[in-house]
Design a protein that fits this description.
Layout: H1 23-37, E1 44-48, H2 55-68, E2 72-77, H3 85-100, H4 106-121, H5 152-169, E3 174-179, H6 186-202, E4 206-212, H7 216-223, H8 227-230, E5 231-235, H9 241-254, H10 261-271, H11 275-288, H12 296-319, H13 324-337, E6 345-346, H14 347-354, H15 362-370, E7 374-378, E8 381-384, H16 389-396
Parallel strand pairs: 1-4, 1-5, 2-3, 3-4
Antiparallel strand pairs: 6-8, 7-8
Protein name: Cytochrome c domain-containing protein
GO molecular function, one term: metal ion binding
Keywords: Heme, Iron, Metal-binding
Amino acid sequence: MDPVRNPFAPGAGQRPPELAGREKEVAAFDVVLERVARGRPERSLVLTGLRGVGKTVLLGELRSMAIRRGWGAGKIEARPDAGLRRPLSAALHRAVRDLAVRHRAPDRVEQVLGVLKAFALRASPSDSKLRDRWQPGIDVPPTQGRADSGDIEIDLVELFTDVAELAQDVGTGVALLIDEMQDVMADDISALCAACHELSQSGAPFVVVGAGLPHLPAVLSASKSYSERLFRYVRIDRLDRADADQAVVAPVSREDATITDEALDALFDAAGGYPYFIQAYGKAAWDAAPSDPITAEDVGVAAPEAEAELAVGFFGSRYERATPAEREYLRAMAELTKGKTDEGAATADIAGQLGRKPSSLSPARDSLIKKGLIFSAERGRIAFTVPHFGRYLLNMDD
């Protein structure tokens, strides 16, 4: 098979050739865009799921939908221990530029940009020297007395309100998309929830779409109790068999090639329905196939190649971030769950496996949660955020 024509595209956040199994989420967001644009009340959206299920891809698709409808749309990726002002300023700057194309009053656009610049400049400490202060790259003077108090909650409400009103002028809205939302700092996530709450009460055309790991709802709830009612939560999971087959068959067919039913069986068994793994195994199977059709034997030949690539780029890069004590904790989890993807382990059992007191393992557990390698599935239980990670760890010891 010609490798140049290989349709599969494994990559972080890279849109697959066939966005299978997400029709329901896409249709629901289309309704949100239309309702908000018409002044109807609608909740912001939070997507949750393990790594590799396509949350980032779906977030990008939703952003594209908003832009096609004439909305202002900006996207950020939260980072641990990093404030929200800088990335949020850049994202909303992009959204305002989207709206400015349709707005007939340049002075009105500049006024909002001035507020945005004032908000952004507060990202630098007030006692920092002028040459050390971050400049947001907004070519208008900052507006004084609006979104520049230094209180992130007050400033977000004022900024979101002004940007939403600009969108309302042209009959659309603003979508702010936040990836890795569980990494937003505690004060910032609290302020974000409060701002969303304030705007939802006023009916402003402003929607936040967050994506994060399965424990994100608990993070939001710990920040503001009303967040359970503020957002609509959508769990993004692995694809079922029909959708997984579509993710393979559709792109292969567009290249005038075919794949046998037995090969589809083998691909589903290997990838487990996880979109990222489908792309990885699909790409390797295409390259391994000497001719059309792709067979189960081709998938078998390709599997070690795909697994070797995943071991380096998907699993290994995350494992390398763990300290020796954290790796010991991860291996104990893998041994207790026998490498099964969906099963968590009791923290007490992990302590027993390692012959340690549960309290002595708290630093390792908390650090692994912060690094996004594990999450608290329920009280007293821990699970991997990465599908097949336990199996990878067990294979390392073989």
